[in-house]
Amino acid sequence: MVSKLHYITQGSTPEEHLENIQRACSSGAEWVQLRLKKLDPKTILETAKKAREITAHFQTRLIINDYYKVAKEVNADGVHLGKKDTCPLKARNYLGKFYTIGGTANTLDDCKKLLEKKVDYIGLGPFRFTETKKNLSPVLGTVGYQVLLEELKTETPIIAIGGITIEDVPEIINTGVYGIAVSGEITKDFNKIGAFHKILKAPSTNEQVYKLGDNK
């Protein structure tokens, strides 16, 4: 099952990424995407192994950005592929059916291509300008999401991404998107994970509400 809240890691060093994964998991993150750029393959593999150890301890799902072979080697839960990365069909052939595969999209055409390739979810954005990504695609905003979702009419989870703050979430969810991916807003304050889950009515929150009601 695809989570409604995706935390995308940040850090100026691999160690910072791992520290932030530890904090995210400790704060209740259910889904973490390890996003490492401009590092050598050995460093990426070693960091991914450590990330898997942390996430496994917390039973948090781990998605590897771009490096689908690393995802398999460290027994991650899946891979997220950018627009210029490996074809999802090639990754699926390599990983098999039990791995989650997501893809990045910005336009209706991007989304349709990913749906044809049977991805498990689509990261659609950016919602607004963000400095975490270079060569940013055109900003969508809530109107952009609404228009695209009305055209797509898909049951494949659409995850909004790109400069999202906690104040944006109700408006974004009202467009019909399934969930959100957040980087900077959570890295600044990991305590916000619980608040995000509450607004998104994520599974863990629903379960807690059910248990509380059960005890009455």
Describe the structure.
- Strands 1-2-3-4-5-6-7-8 form an 8-stranded parallel beta barrel, surrounded by 5 helices.
- Strand 6 (121-124), helix 6 (141-152) and strand 7 form a beta-alpha-beta unit.
- It is globular, with a radius of gyration of 17 Å.
- It has 10 helices and 8 strands.
- Helix 1 runs parallel beside helix 2 (41-58).
- The chain is of the alpha/beta class and 216 residues long.
Give a topology summary.
Layout: E1 5-8, H1 14-26, E2 31-34, H2 41-58, E3 61-65, H3 68-73, E4 78-81, H4 88-95, E5 100-105, H5 108-116, E6 121-124, H6 141-152, E7 158-161, H7 169-173, E8 179-182, H8 184-188, H9 192-200, H10 203-214
Parallel strand pairs: 1-2, 1-8, 2-3, 3-4, 4-5, 5-6, 6-7, 7-8
Pathway: Cofactor biosynthesis; thiamine diphosphate biosynthesis; thiamine phosphate from 4-amino-2-methyl-5-diphosphomethylpyrimidine and 4-methyl-5-(2-phosphoethyl)-thiazole: step 1/1
Pfam family, one: TMP-TENI
Binding site for 4-amino-2-methyl-5-(diphosphooxymethyl)pyrimidine: 33-37, 65, 104, 133
